Amino acid sequence: MMIVKADRRNRSDGEYLASIIDSSPVALISLDTSLRIFMFNRAACDLTGFSSDEVMGHRVSRLVGPGRTRDIVRLLRGRGEVSIEGYLTRFRTKDRGDLSVRLKVIPITGSGGRMVGVLLAATDLREIRQLQERILEAERLAAITETAVSFNHEINNPLCSILGYTQLLLMERDRLEPEVIRKLEGIEEQIVRIQEVAGRMSRITRPVVTEYVGGRRMLDVEQSEVGEGEDGGD
Questions:
Q1: CA–CA separation, 62 vs 173, rounded Å?
Q2: What spatial distance separates the first Cα and last Cα of the chain, rounded to whole Å?
Q3: Is the pTM of this model over 0.90?
Q4: Is 99 helix (H, G, I), strand (E, B) or coil?
């Protein structure tokens, strides 16, 4: 009776471990000492487009090139070193061509420390690049916001003074020449425009960059998306 309970427990533990491996978001592939695939989890199927039935029992060369296969062979023979960072390599997929991945090769040891296979953990580099792009975008947005706040702080007071003096002069338009009035109104319009641009910059949530003179790039304030809120200022 005790033996039956132990068998059930072992079977339950094995099923639980298999469920954990299959639920992992990382593509996991196990190889035996002949480099044949004997475990291919759900994330590996999603990454490569192959079902487990299509690759089980096949050699790993179906997925990776000869150079990386030689690295795995050297590791199995005790002639290679485990790379903590992993390798940048390419996986063959079923219908999407080659895919750039970061591949970690992890030795699997049995009793007595004898190596009985390897575990491959593959990470899609597209996800890493997308994360890097989001981080860069957040840093770029933070830099734009900081610049806008500094711009408002440094320029808003002088602008307000110039605008105030201009509007005081315009209040005496009866004593001014038409040409002078036209120029003062132009100054007033441009000052208001500068304040609007500064305010819009401080509310940008998705910056748009365009080409400028000499191949340089510039922020397109008008095309950039902005959030709700009042224009910045002191």
A1: 85
A2: 81
A3: no
A4: strand
